[in-house]
Write a structure and sequence with these properties.
355 residues, Rossmann fold, 2 domains, 7-stranded parallel β-sheet, binds uridine-diphosphate-N-acetylglucosamine, isomerase activity, UDP-N-acetylglucosamine 2-epimerase, isomerase, UDP_GlcNAc_Epimerase_2_dom
Length: 355
């Protein structure tokens, strides 16, 4: 059996890590990796392949940045000959980026079976490009590999129950594995911060938070004013928009640095007094690593993180000052994201359902 994975953006490399290892463990599944090139900076791409021991991509489309139409269209153009050459038994697409949608559309047009990993997540916020990508990819795919029961329920509501399988969350696989490996390593903070004092870890990159100057300025000022130092890991989109709007990403209690590699990130979350973010993956990583999270968005796809107060939504920034650093909730939070073996289940399900 041949599986062809299409990835392109940072969170997809994290998901690909455990899946590539699980497919390799089967011993008889051929795995072709196609990188669209949506993310191209070394810190956004290469370091994930190195740290997560992912084989180098077999094909790199080198698409780069652009508007949604330009970027997605370039991926479609690039994918056609690659899919034609390989004619895999499964085209495996990951998450909710433009790379996900492009690969699903390219494959379905060529009558190639498509499997969507991390299917069924919904924010019900149609302003998010990820929401369009998820809905369209789920409806185009032949098998929907859902991370949670809530995702399964969304798929059932949309008439997709027969194509859906609950496999668990592959990001949990890699997060728990890396956690165990970095627990005894030092936390790497910039020189401007005291690594022995409490700190908050922050990321902001959603277009709704970065693309208008008023909104971005409000978020930056709210973080500057916090009483605990904030380490902002600045995504290239944030850096580009802040520069365009003339907004400094430092000042007050705010410290800026480049994005972390995955193990460094996991270690920094483990050591933080709290996480402030609009990232989906980081909300879940904070939950898995027992660090309270405050999410600067009106809603979350990972609703399980809200249970018990591990994650708090604060889109209007009215609670941040009071909740960014808070006691760790007590009580059993269960294992809503699976037991850390989702990727092996993905490999089995793909084999069982191959045509
Ligand atoms: C993309 C995904 C988003 C995901 C995020 C994770 C879409 C629509 N969005 O958002 O779902 O949460 O990745 O990081 O697919 N840039 C660089 N270097 C890079 C990559 C990007 O400088 O390696 C800059 C460019 O200015 C680019 C901007 O970041 O225009 C945005 O990149 P893009 O890939 O369009 O979307 P992200 O915001 O990264």
């Amino acid at each position: 059996m041949k599986v062809l994975s299409v990835v392109g953006a940072r969170p997809q490399f994290v998901k690909l890590g455990p899946v590539a290892q699980a497919l390799a463990r089967t011993g008889d599944i051929e795995h072709v990796i196609v990188h669209t090139g949506q993310h191209y900076d070394a810190a956004m791409s290469d370091v994930f392949f190195e740290d997560l021991k992912i084989p180098a991509p077999d094909v790199h489309l080198g698409v780069g940045s652009g508007s949604h139409g330009v970027q997605t269209g370039a991926m479609l153009t690039g994918l056609d000959p690659v899919l034609e050459e390989h004619r895999p038994d499964w085209v495996l697409v990951y998450g909710d980026t433009n790379s996900t949608l492009a690969a699903a559309v390219a494959a379905v047009k060529m009558h190639l079976p498509v499997a969507h990993l991390e299917a069924g997540l919904r924010s019900f916020n149609r302003r998010m490009p990820e929401e369009h990508n998820r809905v369209l990819t789920d409806h185009a795919s032949d098998i929907l590999l859902a991370p949670t029961q809530v995702a399964m329920d969304h798929l059932a509501t949309e008439g997709l129950a027969q194509r859906s399988v609950l496999v668990g969350d592959v990001m949990t696989d890699v997060c728990l594995l890396v956690r165990d490996g970095v627990a005894d390593t030092p936390i790497e903070l910039p020189d401007s911060m005291d690594a022995h004092a409490p700190y908050l870890l922050a990321t902001i990159h959603r277009p709704d938070n970065t693309d208008t100057p008023q909104r971005l300025r409000a978020i930056v000022e709210a973080m500057r004013d916090l009483s605990t130092p904030v380490l902002l890991l600045a995504h290239p989109r944030l850096v580009a928009k802040a520069a365009a709007h003339g907004i400094e990403l430092t000042g007050g209690n705010l410290h800026q640095t480049a994005p972390f590699a995955y193990p460094q990130m996991v270690r920094a979350v483990m050591g933080a007094a709290g996480v402030v973010t609009d990232s989906g993956g980081l909300q879940k990583e904070a939950f898995l690593l027992d660090t309270p999270c405050t999410t600067i968005r009106p809603e979350t796809e990972w609703v399980e993180t809200l249970e018990g107060g591990w994650n708090i939504l604060d889109n209007d920034l009215t609670q941040l000052r009071d909740v960014a650093v808070r006691e760790r909730p007590t009580g059993d939070k269960g294992t809503p994201y699976g037991d850390g073996h989702a990727a092996d289940t993905v490999a089995s399900v793909l084999r069982e359902h191959a045509r």
